Amino acid sequence: MDEPGIEIRPIKLIEGGHEVNEVFFTNVRVPVKNLVGEENSGWTIAKYLLSHERTGIASLGFSMQALEEVKSIASTIKRGSKRLIDDPLFASRMARVEIDLEAMKITNLRMLFRAQEQGSPGPETSILKIKGSVINQELHDLARRALGPLAAPFPGHINEGSLLFGPPFTAYKAARYFNNRKTSIFGGSNEIQRKILAKSILEL
């Protein structure tokens, strides 16, 4: 990263944080000692690595944890005299995302089985990336809606050992919701993933 011609420009995210960058390469020359793989095989290597990255972006474990936390919030927060989890509309959204999450678990297992057989993940990683990012964003949205004004950012620190939205629930910040919007474009945007699936699975 210190080679001449490499320029890094930080991208400030919508919630004010910085964890991604633009990287520009201007007439960069890579010494032979730094070459990874064969010359001109960079894109092939990048595609292999992206398939693993997309599995990570799906964040299956984090979504499972977030679902349990949303259930806990909805069982505690009340709208009038009724718990939020007993509200038909909110409960319906929770049920829908839980069903999608269970389906993603099965897809994840299929992907792992295929990777074990073939030595690398297949196009299922694009399915995981699309659904995983959508599910994770939906869970953050449900938590934000459940907490209402309590989700607004405020001074203080979140205990790193706590679950995604707490405890206490007021430790959840709307910044988490905004930060999580970026997963739609991480590892190749969801639109690109749909094109990959159309070409590789549907053979269009």
List descriptors.
9% strand; 204 residues; single chain; two-stranded antiparallel ribbon; Butyryl-CoA Dehydrogenase, subunit A, domain 3; mainly alpha
Question: What this model shows, in words?
Answer:
This protein has 204 residues and is mostly helical. It has a single domain, classed as Butyryl-CoA Dehydrogenase, subunit A, domain 3, CATH 1.20.140.10. It contains six helices and four strands; from the N terminus they run E-E-H-H-E-E-H-H-H-H. The strands form two sheets. A two-stranded antiparallel sheet has the order 1-2. Helix 2 runs parallel beside helix 4. The radius of gyration is 20 Å and the shape is flat. The two termini are 39 Å apart. About 7% of the residues have low confidence.
Report the span from N to C terminus. Answer: 39 Å
Task: Tally the structural domains.
Answer: 1
Secondary-structure element order, N to C: EEHHEEHHHH
CATH class: Mainly Alpha
The percentage helix is: 40-55%
Indicate the overall shape: flat
Strand order of the largest sheet: 1-2
The CATH topology corresponds to: Butyryl-CoA Dehydrogenase, subunit A, domain 3
CATH architect. name? Up-down Bundle
Low-confidence stretches are: 154-167
Please tally the β strands and state the result.
4
